[in-house]
Amino acid sequence: MKFCQQCASPIILKVPDGDDKPRHCCSDCDSIFYQNPKNVVGTLPVYEDKVLLCRRAIEPRIGKWTLPAGYMENGESSLNGAIRETIEEAGAEIIVASDSLYTLYNLPNINQVYMFFRGELANLDFAPGAESLEVQLFTEAEIPWKEIAFTVVKSTLELYFADLKSSHFPVRMFDVHHHKDTGITTNLISHSSVNISSKDNSSAP
Amino acid sequence: MKFCQQCASPIILKVPDGDDKPRHCCSDCDSIFYQNPKNVVGTLPVYEDKVLLCRRAIEPRIGKWTLPAGYMENGESSLNGAIRETIEEAGAEIIVASDSLYTLYNLPNINQVYMFFRGELANLDFAPGAESLEVQLFTEAEIPWKEIAFTVVKSTLELYFADLKSSHFPVRMFDVHHHKDTGITTNLISHSSVNISSKDNSSAP
Asked: pTM of the prediction?
C-alpha cells in the first residue's frame, strides 16, 4: 500500500494515537487503513462413502486436489459462501444438515481463517468450474493423499473419515503455524463439548 | 475507495474478466482491490454464577453493556485475538478450556463475522481499559438486559445461561439479518452434533 485511497497522498507506517501497532496511515488526511484476516469458506461434499475433490486449475498448488473453497464475500454468510464456492468450483449442489459447521483453522502466518461445512451431494451432476481441471468422487482409500493441495484440506478429510466411524462430527478449531524450518503444525484449540449425563456416562464403554 | 493504493490513479467499479461481481479496479494499472468480511472476536468471561460485562466508552452504542470483543488482527489466531481484547477492554485474564469456541454469527449486512469463546476469569483483578467506562460482574438476574449493546452479545448471554442448566455448551452458528422495517432476525444455521450411541440413546430419558 503506497497511496491513500481517499486523497492519493503517500502512505506511511506509524502507530496511531491510542493504538499500539503500526498501521497504514495517510501522510496528509486522517485516514487509517487497517488490514485484517480474510475468511476462506468451503465444503466437504459427501456421496455415499465418497467425498468430492477438485483438481486445481490455478495457482497456488495448480494440479493438486482440494475441497471447494474460496474467499467469503461481503454481503454473504459463511455457509452461503461455502455453498456458492461449491457450485462455482465443482458445479455441485449440496444439501446441508443442521450440524454442517465442521472444521475451522486459524492461519496467522498468512492472515486467513478457514471454515469447512459438511454437505451431502444433491445429485451426481457435478462438473469442473473455471478454477478446476477436474472434479471427482473418492473413497478414503482412493484419495490421492500425497497430492492434496493444502494442510487444512488434508486435515479435514482425515477428521471426516475418522469421525465417520462413530457418525459423530464435532466442531473443531485449529491453529495452523507455518514454521521456517520445521514445516507446518496443526494444533487443536477447541473441540465442541459433548453432553454426557451421569447416567449415560456410567454406561459408556 | 477513490484512488489506487499502488499508483494513485482513480478507482473505478467494474466486473473484472472472469469475475461476476463489480470490484474496485484501478483505471490505469491492473490492481483489483477486493473487500471481504472482517472477524470480530471476543470472550464470555465467567466467574462462579456471574459473567463479566464492559460498559462501552466509544461509539457505536456508547454507554451500553457488551462482552469484550474487537477486530481480529493480522498475525493472530481468533482465540488469541479474543484473549487480547479481553485484556485490553476489561483488564481481565481468562483461562480457556478445550471447548472454548461457543457462538459464531454471520452479519452479511455489515460484513462481519463474530466469534465468542467461553473462559473462566483467572482472578478478580479486572479494570476498564481505554474503550470501557466500567467493567462489572453480573448474575443472570442482574444483567441489564435492555442495555446490552449488540444483538450478538445478548444472544450469546441468553444461550450461556440456558446451556448452563445442562452444563452442555454446543457450538452454534447464526445468520443475523438487519431488516429495514422489521428489525433484526437471528437464525440458527448450525449446531454441533452430539454423539449418541445406540446404547446411550436407548437409555436416554
From this structure: 0.93
